[in-house]
Amino acid sequence: MKHVTRIQDLGPEGVEAVLSQAAAWKLKDPGHIFPGKLLGMVFFNPSLRTRTSFEAVMLRAGGHAIVLDVGSGVWKLEDRPGAVMNADRAEHIKEASPVLSRFVDMLGIRTFSQGGGDEEDEADPVINAFRKWATVPVVSMESAREHPCQGLADALTLRETFGTTKKLPVTLTWAPHIKPLPKAVPNSFLLSAAAAGCEVRVAHPPGFDLHPAVRAEAEAYAKATGGSITYTHDQDEALVGSRAVYAKSWGPTAQTASTPTDVAALLASYSGWMPTRRHMGKAAKDAAFLHCLPVRRNVEVADEVLDHASSRVVDEAGNRYHVQRALLAWMRGG
């Protein structure tokens, strides 16, 4: 039984297999590859692309998706081992996960960071509880640590745009926001790009470091694939000559800013990091712009970047369907 709740479940070989299959099936539809199969989708948080793309995959492949919204028609779920359940969480994942496994063939879980800090996000308690107690394959639809399906879609978009990802110089740049966001998406872009052999430059202000475990994992992938990773606090330096610019906001470490007031002030102080055409002008002439969406226009990214011909954000979102179809097939041994 194969779970995919993090890029580590695939490794560079698995990433390559999924991307190759996704590209092939994008050219020639495989038809009903999941006949009569059911995907149970458990959402702790909202979704647009993730829900729609997974449902489309199952329906077009001859299966069906069942959507469950936690706390809205479904009991609030407890994940903590040994919890005294005397609050509003009426059911434990220890029962919910194996019970759902009796009804469906695969489980998808979407559960954002609960704001407990970098170490809690690294532990990824909710999705790991589902993974521990499920008796069917579990796929991440984004969790506290990672968003592997987004990372795979990013890598497929790079491959389609440039023909290869090997030695491709790409920049992951921090961007401003009105609030601190989780690190799942930047983590997954870094891990997927490294697993695909890119030369990744990561640019962020001081105090916005990604978790050391994520960085170490990415370094291992880069070493295995011939890629590289560099980190800098100089956004312009990271953009020079880059073939792709990936912008995403994420929050500071707890050591950098611990109160909401401190965090808000810190985020506001780096408004100049919002990508504009001036920034894109420092990258290669054929540079593509990527973002996972949703995006706050003119806060996180300027209109002139999102609306430019170099923007690949819609293609990138469309590729969610293709990588997820290939990923579910890979998990089922296809």
TrEMBL record:
Coiled-coil annotated residue ranges, if any: none
Functional pathway: Amino-acid biosynthesis; L-arginine biosynthesis
Catalytic activity of the protein: N(2)-succinyl-L-ornithine + carbamoyl phosphate = N(2)-succinyl-L-citrulline + phosphate + H(+)
GO molecular function, one term: ornithine carbamoyltransferase activity
SUPFAM superfamilies: Aspartate/ornithine carbamoyltransferase
Protein EC: 2.1.3.11
One Pfam family in the UniProt entry: OTCace
Top-rank taxon, per record: Bacteria
Domain Aspartate/ornithine carbamoyltransferase carbamoyl-P binding positions: 2-160
Positions annotated to bind carbamoyl phosphate: 47-50, 75, 110, 147-150, 292-293, 320
Keyword set, alphabetical order: Amino-acid biosynthesis, Arginine biosynthesis, Transferase
GO biological process: citrulline biosynthetic process; L-arginine biosynthetic process via ornithine
Residues annotated as binding N(2)-succinyl-L-ornithine: 142, 177, 248, 296
InterPro entries, alphabetized: ArgF'-like, Asp/Orn_carbamoyltranf_P-bd, Asp/Orn_carbamoylTrfase, Asp/Orn_carbamoylTrfase_sf, Asp_carbamoyltransf_Asp/Orn-bd
Protein family membership: Belongs to the aspartate/ornithine carbamoyltransferase superfamily. SOTCase family.
PANTHER family named among the record's database cross-references: ORNITHINE CARBAMOYLTRANSFERASE, MITOCHONDRIAL, ORNITHINE TRANSCARBAMYLASE, MITOCHONDRIAL
Protein name: N-succinylornithine carbamoyltransferase
Organism (species): Corallococcus exiguus
Gene (name only): argF'
